[in-house]
């Protein structure tokens, strides 16, 4: 029960990375402060470039991603099929390097558990990693959690395209206000509209 509570709290306090320097800082911390930098970089880059939930990233199988530009994913929460991009941010090449000469079969997960190589890494392990990255940032990333990956994708997708309808479909949200609030845009736009408002 405690584990679920922690994950829920992490999601509530989670915010997107709204500046490019924040994204680069996370990448640098992954590279220099984590035990599995290549694995963790792949997880991060898949997350921020596709908006997948952490659990769905961890459930990827090698057969689904090896030497592919796109992969088909069935989301655990919704059961809906989605296509994700692997031909961005060196993800495809990094996956190839990460797999290396590892022996694998149809059921082999991309990110395997240390305890049981037949199972994927548990979601809580990635939440803990992001909690450590938050700490290593020295206060520069106060609301960084594993859930920030999904929110970061949404934030940047909206900022670059203004296509809230497609983003709602990607996130499976029922209305625009939920999506805007989820990616931290609603609060940002209110602040901007009040910036020069004085009585």
Protein architecture, described:
The protein is mainly alpha-helical and 199 residues long. It has one domain (14-194): hpI Integrase, Chain A. The chain has eleven helices and two strands, in the order H-H-H-H-H-E-E-H-H-H-H-H-H. The chain has helices at residues 2-12, 20-33, 37-50, 54-58, 62-65, 91-99, 123-136, 148-161, 164-171, 176-182, 185-194; strands spanning 70-74, 81-85. Strands 1-2 form a two-stranded antiparallel ribbon. A hairpin with a 6-residue loop joins strand 1 and strand 2 (81-85). Helix 2 packs antiparallel against helix 3, helix 3 (37-50) runs antiparallel to helix 6 and helix 3 (37-50) crosses helix 8 (148-161). The longest helix has 14 residues, at 20-33.
Q: Brief overview, please?
A:
The chain has 199 residues and is mainly α. The chain has one domain: Orthogonal Bundle (hpI Integrase, Chain A).
Strand order of the largest sheet: 1-2
Helical residue percent? 55-70%
**Through-space gap between termini:** 50 Å
Described by the principal axes of the CA atoms, the overall outline is globular
Global structural class: mainly alpha
**Overall average pLDDT:** 91
Strand content: 5-15%
Largest sheet, in brief, is: 2 strands, antiparallel
User: What is the tally of beta strands?
Assistant: 2
The CATH topology label is hpI Integrase, Chain A
Q: Can you say what the CATH homologous superfamily is?
A: Intergrase catalytic core
CATH class: Mainly Alpha
Tally of DSSP helical segments: 11
Radius of gyration: 17 Å
Would you list the SSEs in sequence order as H and E?
A: HHHHHEEHHHHHH
């Amino acid at each position: 029960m405690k584990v679920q509570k922690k994950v829920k709290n992490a999601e509530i306090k989670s915010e997107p990375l709204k500046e490019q320097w924040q994204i680069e800082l996370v990448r640098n911390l992954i590279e220099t402060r984590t035990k599995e930098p290549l694995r963790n970089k792949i997880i991060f880059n898949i997350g921020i470039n596709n908006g997948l939930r952490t659990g769905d990233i961890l459930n990827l199988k090698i057969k689904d991603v090896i030497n592919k530009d796109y992969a088909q994913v069935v989301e655990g929460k919704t059961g809906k099929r989605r296509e994700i991009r692997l031909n961005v941010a060196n993800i495809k090449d990094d996956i190839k390097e990460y797999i290396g000469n590892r022996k694998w079969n149809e059921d082999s997960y991309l990110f395997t558990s240390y305890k049981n190589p037949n199972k994927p890494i548990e979601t809580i392990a990635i939440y803990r990693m992001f909690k450590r990255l938050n700490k290593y940032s020295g206060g520069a990333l106060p609301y960084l959690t594993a859930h920030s990956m999904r929110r970061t994708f949404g934030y940047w997708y909206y900022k670059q395209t203004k296509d809230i309808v497609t983003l709602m479909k990607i996130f499976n949200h029922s209305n625009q206000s939920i999506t805007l609030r989820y990616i931290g845009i609603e609060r940002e736009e209110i602040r901007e509209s009040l910036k020069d408002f004085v009585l």
